[in-house]
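Why do we care about 3D structure at all? Because function follows from shape, and shape follows, mostly, from sequence. That is the central idea of this module. The next example makes it concrete: a single protein chain, its amino acid sequence, and then its structure expressed as tokens.
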Amino acid sequence: MLKEEKILLKCALAVSLLGIIILIILAETGSKGEEIVFISEAKEAEEGQEVGIQGEVKVLKDTPTITILTIQDETSEIKVIADKKGMETKLQKGMFVEVEGKIKLYQEEKEIEASTIRILKK
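And the structure:
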């Protein structure tokens, strides 16, 4: 093997290892999303805790600044409060969505203050 080939092989191995390390770091830190749980489990969470749920939009109420949703899965339902400033798409009743946000207590009922809403199925 020539000296240049050895140097090239060492460089290729170093770059490959660096790429693998970067992929591992991205896989560990890149997913900020919360673990998805059933709504009944989310309702058991402490106030202020981050949760992720999926379900169908059963009720939708628009106000000038927020959208109030009732999301239902096979275990329960929960109100979700979403700031319209952060919403990119128009939600509709019957859509299946994934919601991430914090548990809040409002008038003795737990609800989710959404940080993200993603449409899964229209």
